């Protein structure tokens, strides 16, 4: 907390953890407000990953566990329309280059491109040494963010020739604490801090030191681990804190949203007509569509 007693950031799971220990009507009231998030974040095995103990403890303490357990499960927000196989292993990042889908391979430190028709690997590019964070597409070339928050390797943005693997541009990312996704919208590059939610903007033609940007009085819509362009002013993001896929623009206008499509989910890519999602647990790359029961934006939002 700061000197005024305010939390530096609103970590929703911390409130659940508090409710697990506090026997008070106010704690129960706050927990009830967190129930939609808790239900949306529940995984296929019935747990909540690292948050499972605090969730069960809080629901039990305030008499909500049996009530929620008796209700039917939430319907899925997405349907898998088709899928193609991808290699096993620690894959990271997902981006559409106009003809192919790219992802990073941790074990071999390379980026690989898939043919969307059958999943055939059509290109392999060796990446520079460093901890890869995300992939983007930058003026017809591959964009790579690097820098592990747990190590001291350089935090940087690279533009890489996808044919030969040469570094064309390198920009130091000293300001972001946890380098996340990168996306090009028009003539600007947007780089995200995957923990604090900050956004940094660069000129795509002359990328110098990035400039932090925020709307006055508002935090970004998404603490973006991933961002993929859906047009000149819009992008699909994956929220790092809550289980949502979000479509937004650079003014933080919420355009569309839905729950993450499946467990061990690692990002989305927009190909101009379809949304692709990387399903790491089952080693599949899937085309996903929203179901009829998923939240849909109002007409005014859709026309924005």
Word description of this protein:
There is one protein chain. The radius of gyration is 20 Å and the shape is globular. It has helices at 12-21, 25-41, 52-61, 65-69, 299-302, and strands spanning 78-85, 91-96, 101-105, 110-114, 121-126, 132-138, 141-146, 156-160, 167-172, 179-185, 188-193, 199-203, 211-213, 224-229, 234-239, 244-249, 254-259, 265-270, 275-279, 284-290. With 304 residues, the chain is of the alpha+beta class. Helices cover 15% and strands 38% of the residues. A hairpin with a 2-residue loop joins strand 6 (132-138) and strand 7 (141-146). Helix 1 (12-21) packs across helix 2 (25-41) and helix 1 crosses helix 3. The chain starts with 11 loop residues before the first helix and ends with a helix. Strands 1-20-19-18 form a four-stranded antiparallel sheet, with no helix packed on it. It has a four-stranded antiparallel sheet with strand order 2-3-4-5, with no helix packed on it. Strands 6-7-8-9 form a four-stranded antiparallel sheet, with no helix packed on it. The protein has two domains: 12-69, no CATH class; 78-302, TolB, C-terminal domain (Neuraminidase). The chain is built from five helices and 20 strands. The model is unreliable at 216-222 (pLDDT under 50).
């Amino acid at each position: 907390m700061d000197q005024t007693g305010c939390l530096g950031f609103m970590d929703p799971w911390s409130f659940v953890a508090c409710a697990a220990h506090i026997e008070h009507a106010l704690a129960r009231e706050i927990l009830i407000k967190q129930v939609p998030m808790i239900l949306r974040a529940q995984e296929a095995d019935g747990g909540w990953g690292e948050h499972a103990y605090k969730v069960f403890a809080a629901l039990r303490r305030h008499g909500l566990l049996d009530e929620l357990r008796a209700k039917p499960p939430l319907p899925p927000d997405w349907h898998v329309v088709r899928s193609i196989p991808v290699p096993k292993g620690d894959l990271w990042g997902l981006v559409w280059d106009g003809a192919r889908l790219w992802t990073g391979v941790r074990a071999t430190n390379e980026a690989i491109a898939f043919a969307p028709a059958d999943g055939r690997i059509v290109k392999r590019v060796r990446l520079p040494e460093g901890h890869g964070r995300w992939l983007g597409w930058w003026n017809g070339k591959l964009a790579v963010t690097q820098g592990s928050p747990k190590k001291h390797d350089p935090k940087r943005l690279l533009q890489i020739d996808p044919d030969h693997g040469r570094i064309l541009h390198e920009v130091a990312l000293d300001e972001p604490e946890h380098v996340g996704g990168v996306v090009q919208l028009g003539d600007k590059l947007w780089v995200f801090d995957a923990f604090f939610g900050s956004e940094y903007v660069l000129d795509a033609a002359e990328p110098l030191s990035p400039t932090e940007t925020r709307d006055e009085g508002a935090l970004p819509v998404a603490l973006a681990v991933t961002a993929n362009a859906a047009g000149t002013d819009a992008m699909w993001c994956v929220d790092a804190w809550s289980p949502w896929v979000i479509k937004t623009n650079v003014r933080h206008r919420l355009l569309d949203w839905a729950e993450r499509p499946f467990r061990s989910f690692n990002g989305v890519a927009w190909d101009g007509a379809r949304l692709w999602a990387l399903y790491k647990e089952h080693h599949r790359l899937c085309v996903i569509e929203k179901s009829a029961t998923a939240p849909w934006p109002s007409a005014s939002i859709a026309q924005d």
